[in-house]
Amino acid sequence: MRERTQILIAGGGPAGTTAATVLAQQGFDVVLLEKERFPRYHIGESLLPSLLPVLDIMGAREAVERHGFVRKNGAFYGWGGQEWALSFDEPGRPATHSFQVVRSEFDHLLLQHARHQGADVREETRVRHIAVPDGRATSASWSGDDGRAGDIDFTCLIDATGRAGLLGARQLRTRRVHDVFRNVAAWAYWRGAAAVPGAPEGAIGVFSLPRSGWFWAIPLHDGTLSVGLVTDKRSFHQARNDLGSVDALYHEALTRTPLLARMLEDAHQVSALTIESDYSYTSDTFCGPGYYLAGDAACFLDPLLSTGVHLAMYSGLLSAAAIATVLRGETDEATARRYYQTTYRRAYERLLILVGAFYRIHDGRDTYFRQAQRLSHRDQQGLRLHESFLNIITGTEDLDDAREHPVDLLYERLRRPLDEHHQHGLGGHGTSHLLPLPTTPDHAAAGLYLTLTPHPVLRPVPPPATTSA
User: Fold this and answer.
1) At what angle do helices 406-414 and 333-361 cross, to 10 degrees?
2) Amino acid 374: pLDDT
3) How far apart are CA 229 and CA 214, in angstroms?
4) Phi and psi for 163 in degrees, rounded to 5?
5) Are 205 and 199 a contacting pair, CB within 8 Å?
6) Cα–Cα distance between 339 and 22 in angstroms, integer?
7) Which carries the bigger pLDDT value, residue 381 or residue 145?
8) Residue in 327, 298, 346 with CA at minimum distance from that of residue 455
């Protein structure tokens, strides 16, 4: 079987379904191939308020709102001996709330939405190989669980295959693992847990451990609490060997987190532990002739600030806008790729630095865990630090005076809270204003910026106005 489509999307997670929805709504021919049958389990349950504008663009906001997910109104941190709450209704935030989601249901909802918008969605269909003759992606071979197989030619591909990274990681081998955030996560679900005292309704709880990591606690609408431990690999393996099992390690760590332990006093664990190595990585390039890497297929970041789904849907939106603009003949492919590469990588690098800053600022003890969360010199190579400083701090010219230690300078600036913010967390240097949709000429890249009406496409920056004498 051989067929053809304008856009092939490999992967039906949030990155793939966002792109499929946006492109199908504009009348393009879109085929989405997903290897599993949804709903399927996935971790990454706490969403940022910055996602809501993307759901609005997709037309999926109403469906998510009425589904019954826990409404997330903020966050609570018990970190390094301090406790503070963060409410999303503070001025300047993109939305007053977000959601804690059961990912199997959230992802299924988005997949169904893409199908209803006109995308040809095929589940239980695995993309096996991408043909890249002369460096350009042109076709894919696939096989279905029903024994069928075939090839599909395309004008453009979006690789949204997650951490598996079919094209970038497996075929082109452009993925580079960072030295930083080589952590391990172990999580389970509990029923009967108490709410975080003093936290906004539906808040995620984040609790640091003395010396060796932190816990998340995420309330879900099925009545369970997702409780996950994140620790560095060395500490994880040492504790597992000392205590005899991962279960023993997990429960011993809970005893060293008093506030979380009190929340679980009358609760019982209702699932086995799941374990995943939480590597941080990026790709040398996020796109190339005929293809875009979106979501975790392009890069992956430590879960501390709950940025995974945002980066996935953000990149799905941007890749769709770039492709639509090229297919309409409104810009050339090379310019659209430069826009995507610059915009998506800039967002990822800002968050990479911000997560590292949080770890560094809020653990005053010189522990191995703290050291393991530092960006190494190798990690910093290739980062465009002048660009990454945009919207994090002002005064980027100071970097010229600190070429030896620019990240250290940034961390020192991040210790100073923004005006009218408390010296908690990152003092107002949060993710919301680091991840605006690049919808103004001020956020242009490669001479283009994103417009949302009537559909998401890229537009050239208008020339400066001239004044007559």
Assistant:
1) 60
2) 75
3) 6
4) -65, -20
5) yes
6) 18
7) 145
8) 327
Q: Is the pLDDT assigned to residue 268 strictly greater than 80? A: yes
Confidence class for position 215, pLDDT limits 50, 70, 90 = very high
**Residue 225 three-state SS:** strand
DSSP H/E element including 28: none
Task: Please name the residue that has the structure tokens 């029923």.
Answer: 191
The CA distance from 326 to 335, in Å, is 9
Burial of 424 (0-12, 13-18, 19+ CB in 10 A): middle
Q: Note whether 196 and 205 are within 8 A (CB).
A: yes
What pLDDT is recorded for position 390?
A: 46
Q: Indicate the average pLDDT of the chain.
A: 88
Residue 1 in this model has a pLDDT that exceeds 80: no
CA distance 117 to 135: 32
CA distances to 142, 412, 462 from 129, rounded to whole Å, are: 7, 46, 41
User: Residues with Cβ < 8 Å from 336, sequence gap 6 or more?
Assistant: 322, 323, 325, 326, 446, 448, 458
Sign of CA dihedral 281, 321, 98, 111: negative
Tens of pLDDT, residue by residue over 355-367, are 888 887 665 555 6
Q: What's the CA gap between 147 and 29, in Å, rounded?
A: 25
- Output the pLDDT for position 9: 98
Residue 134, SS3 per DSSP: helix
CA 273 to chain CA centroid, Å, is 23
Which DSSP symbol is given to 168?
I
Tell me if the pTM is above 0.85.
yes
